Amino acid sequence: MSQKIWNPTVLIICVLFWLMPLSALSAVDDEALKTAVQQTIELKPAKLLGLEGHGMDAPTIDQALFKAYRDNDFQTFWVKTDGPGDRAGIIKTALFSSNKEGLDPPDYFFDKIEKYWESTDATGIARLDVLLTLGIGRYVADLREGRAEPKELDPKLFATARDADIDPVELVREARRTPDLKRYLDEQAPPFVAYQNLRDALAEYRVFEANGGWETIPEGKTLKAGMNDPRVSVVRKRLAISGDLQSEDLESTLYDDVVAVGVKHFQKRHGLAEDGALGKQTLAQMNVPVDKRIRQIRVNMERWRWIDRDQTNSVIAVNIAGFELVGVENQQFNIIMPVIVGKTFHMTPVFSDQISYVEINPYWNVPPSIAKKEMLPKLKKDARYLEKRNFRLFESWQENAKELDSTSIPWASVSARDMARYHIRQDPGPKNALGTVKFMFPNQFNVYLHDTPSHSLFGRTKRTFSHGCIRVSRPAELASYVLGGEEGGWGVDKVNDVIASGERKVVRLDKPLPVYILYRTVLVYPDTDQLMFLQDVYGRDALLEKALFSS
User: Fold this and answer.
1) CA atoms within a 13 Å half-sphere pointing along the CA-CB vector of 223
2) 313-365 pLDDT, tens per residue?
3) Topology of domain 214-288, per CATH?
4) CATH of domain 311-363+433-520
């Protein structure tokens, strides 16, 4: 059986036919334009442009594009025989302005749209219309869903970061049906105040970049108040650019109290210990170039595109990178508290779920992984390890499993595989690893919010100490908030009374409360309007930056 083989010369001609502008011809009629549209679609433009994403490869996009235009009898969507009209102009403006959303206009074929904008021949008009269609479809999909597929970045960490795929061609149909196209496009960006704040910050930092950014501060000994050093004038100018220093004297080499206050302000905005001294960590953050900060802002804008927009008005959100929990209602922060998150080798995953119940004076059912990796080695050394820490041992995980005497087990001969069958439970009490309260939202990661007996750790700046769960600093206050407070019959005093009783109590929420486990290294605090740059404790910025900006 013979096989059709593409002649390279023919292929080159097809590519040039798509990319090269044509000279103006005589006036175009509707039939000629329809024919040109069909010919343009048959060139498989998505394949020629290398267009893919949102779960669709180029052939799939070309097929969908063909169907969309065929269903419209191969008539143009945006451009008529006399050229582009108002709606085409709205699309062009949106694509050109996509950089304000942290996106790249070339990704939406803006240069090619500009090239064909003045076309007066059928082929040029047809190409312009198809480019506008592909451009708006990709642009809206990127704004609604994000450019990067989080599951591909790390299937474990981003397993449920975004669950729905979007059909760009269906988005084009939406755009065609809307009576107010400009408003439709304006509404595609994430509706969250946090995203809008980042958009403003991006514009501000691009001004810094256009003005030359800031000078690198030379390395040297730690600078403290009262010291005189030539580098201080560079520090003053650096802090003045970012708004951390309130002083008109930018040439002085004296590290005075005004400079120390400016350094503390900078340290607070960058998640550093606020000692007012310019040591290695603070110097490293000050010397991060402005273009790197711009990429960091864009990376965090991308993350907001992954969030479900149909969330309720009330949510609990945890920012892993910021070691902080907030209770949000109508985009207002009603409760804020420090948290502890997973160690770098027990990373807390990004996902969302719903808190369904609160357990006061909880049991801790030790996960098999912890039992095997951490408890078994200790039991081999000390058979009374469980007894000393108020743990109970059951022969299996079945509900009515028989309780065993942990000191009677020959732990030296128990393997990690054998250990998996045992159910270890810690009863409520001062030694309980979950503390006094836990907040349950059953999920595949076995991650939840809970108290801890180790409250001294909340005094640390970097709080990565858990096995993946999130430890909260003010559990009684959070329990009251989640359960509706005084109005819901659960004031802080009542929660504390139940805790003091020592009795285990499970309280189910009347309505499950959404909880979002997020990772944000740039954000604006609504109470201070300060732009915060936080540490990339898990290296996830670097992972996402590579996916977004690597050519």
Assistant:
1) 29
2) 899 999 999 999 999 988 788 999 999 999 998 999 988 899 999 999 999 99
3) Muramoyl-pentapeptide Carboxypeptidase; domain 1 (1.10.101)
4) 2.40.440.10
